[in-house]
Amino acid sequence: MLHQDQDIRVIPDDPGAWDFVDAAHVTRYEWAAGSLGEEVIGSVVDAGCGTGYGIACLARLFPSKRFVGADYSEAGVALARRTHASLPNARFVVLDLTAAETLDAARFDAALSFDVIEHIADYDRYVDGLDRVLRPGGLLICATPNRATRWDYSDVENPYHAHEFTADELAATLGRRFVVERVLGQHIVNERKRRYHIEQHSRATLPLRNAARRPLARRLRRRIDRRLLRLHRFKSSDIGFLPEVGSAFGLVVVARKRDDS
């Protein structure tokens, strides 16, 4: 589900009713949990945490670790605080990661940045902020849509994105401050659902959408859509993280802060 104040926020509903956007976001946190569990990490910051659902999931998985959700949106942080107030190892703060000079240096062992960097015009300053809040040797996991493919597999630009990246561009941008260890692609690995998703978001469906504006066609379309959505709801197992990046809808970079920075 999308929650909108001044910006777009993702609030996953019941996993049995996930759409593609929900599944794409949640599976990134599920995948990151594996990396966080393999390392000696005491503190994690989620840069651009939104409504805090990802931090909440991780805080429950790792009760001995300390989690901080940071976001520039006061409304998003307020909602996160209300929703996840019962978690003793998670807190949420209003913070602008592009203002590196205002950030406390070397506070965290790991940083997550999911679907944030593409919204920031001065993305180099944002990367500087991520570098500043991490301790030397700290882990960074950064995810963003793949400009070579886009999450909806269409050629329509997202008006909310200031800049999108290919795999090479993202690795080079982060490599200015970090040592890049891995670049992975996020894919729909369920072929039936992948085909349906592409069909739904291709330009070939635009005539149907225009026709749906007429009252009778619109009612019929809603009825069909509800049935199709029930059939094509996404699960975690429908999304995979693979070394192949060219056809991926999303990119994930695992990087490490340099010991001498």
What does this molecule look like?
By secondary structure, the protein is of the alpha/beta class. The protein folds into two domains: 2-188 and 238-257, 3-Layer(aba) Sandwich (Rossmann fold), CATH 3.40.50; 191-233, no CATH class. The chain contains eight helices and ten strands. It has helices spanning 20-38, 53-61, 74-83, 123-133, 167-175, 191-201, 206-211, 215-232; strands at residues 2-4, 8-10, 43-47, 66-71, 90-94, 108-114, 134-145, 178-188, 239-242, 250-257. Strands 5-4-3-6-7-10-8-9 form an eight-stranded mixed β-sheet, with helices on both faces. A two-stranded antiparallel sheet has the order 1-2. Helix 2 links the parallel strand 3 (43-47) and strand 4. Helix 1 (20-38) packs parallel to helix 2 (53-61). The longest helix has 19 residues, at 20-38. The radius of gyration is 19 Å and the shape is globular. The termini are far apart.
Structural features:
single chain, 261 residues, alpha/beta, Rossmann fold, eight-stranded mixed β-sheet, 8 helices, 10 strands, disordered N terminus
CATH superfamily of the largest domain: Vaccinia Virus protein VP39
Total strands: the figure is 10
- In the sheet with the most strands, the strands line up as 5-4-3-6-7-10-8-9
Shape: globular
Record the SSE blueprint.
Elements: E1 2-4, E2 8-10, H1 20-38, E3 43-47, H2 53-61, E4 66-71, H3 74-83, E5 90-94, E6 108-114, H4 123-133, E7 134-145, H5 167-175, E8 178-188, H6 191-201, H7 206-211, H8 215-232, E9 239-242, E10 250-257
Parallel strand pairs: 3-4, 3-6, 4-5, 6-7
Antiparallel strand pairs: 1-2, 7-10, 8-9, 8-10
Helix pairs in contact: 1-2
